[in-house]
Known about the structure:
By secondary structure, this protein is of the alpha/beta class. It folds into 3 domains: 3-121 and 189-199 and 278-308, Rossmann fold, CATH 3.40.50.300; 129-182; 201-272, Crystal structure of tRNA isopentenylpyrophosphate transferase (bh2366) domain (Helix Hairpins), CATH 1.10.287. Helices cover 49% and strands 12% of the residues. It has helices at 21-31, 82-98, 110-117, 129-135, 140-150, 163-178, 200-216, 219-228, 233-237, 241-250, 256-283, 297-308; strands spanning 10-14, 34-38, 45-46, 60-61, 64-65, 68-69, 74-75, 102-107, 191-197, 289-292. Strand 4 and strand 5 (64-65) form a beta hairpin. The radius of gyration is 21 Å and the shape is globular.
Amino acid sequence: MSMKQRKYHMLTILGPTASGKTTVAAHAAKQLDGEIISADSRQIYRGMDLGTGKDYEDYQIEGQNIPYHLIDIVEAGFEYNVYLFHNDFLSAYNDITKRGKFPVLCGGSGLYIEAVLNNYQLIQVPKNHELRKELDPKNLDQLVQLLLAMKPEQHNTTDTENRRRVIRAIEIETYLRQNPELSNNMPEINSLVVGVKYDREHRRKRITERLKQRLEEGMLDEVQRLLDKGLAPEQLTYYGLEYKYLTLHLIGEISYEEMFTKLEIAIHQFAKRQMTWFRRMEKNGTQIHWLDGFMPLEEKLEKISQWLEY
């Protein structure tokens, strides 16, 4: 069945750090004859491997290399952003689908994921107060019909399940019609969104264990190599988390013990913020099908397969 005939054009696997989402995404891609598009704001950097959690071995399954995109695409020190990601995602998505493969978006950067799922135009579309006043008396069905009249091929069903989002979608479409030169030709992508998570206690345990493992694997050496290449300490601390605290230790500002303790707390807080972002996405109309991290991999894949059925 062609991509256009599928109910879903893409699978999105999201989750907080240390949730095991990459393993799930890679195995799902293998089953779907698909390829991974990374939605991680730091894995785009070359030479930043252990600190960003690039688990290259996850992309090797039974002797098969699962192709991935948007990992190792720029040098450390470059200040990447969501605008660049949006364009790079679109290039990767078009490349994958033109070859008849199935795209699997995977990551924990909520802003990057939402930029794709919500078909952000990534332009500052101002609020149209007159239009909102005109739309206010209409009920949800009437608003949906108005949106469908403007965009007959409306695949992003989450835009039609929430009154506020329908009004915003009409507002954006109206603005783009008035300013056609601003449209970025982003295709409508209806994605199944799957989340992987553990309860708070086990998430904290997994974060601590993974931090210890990566330090044993040479994460400090990785940061030292980046400093030796000429990156200034402030350039590395810009990337936060591992790069901030390991750099502060390497330049002698904090002890190893202080580095570990502060970094551990910071990663726990980061994971909490990620979950808060995902819950806000749900509140705003994005349906996330959650998988318990403890569920065996085969069961996770079976669940995804069931949800993808069309």
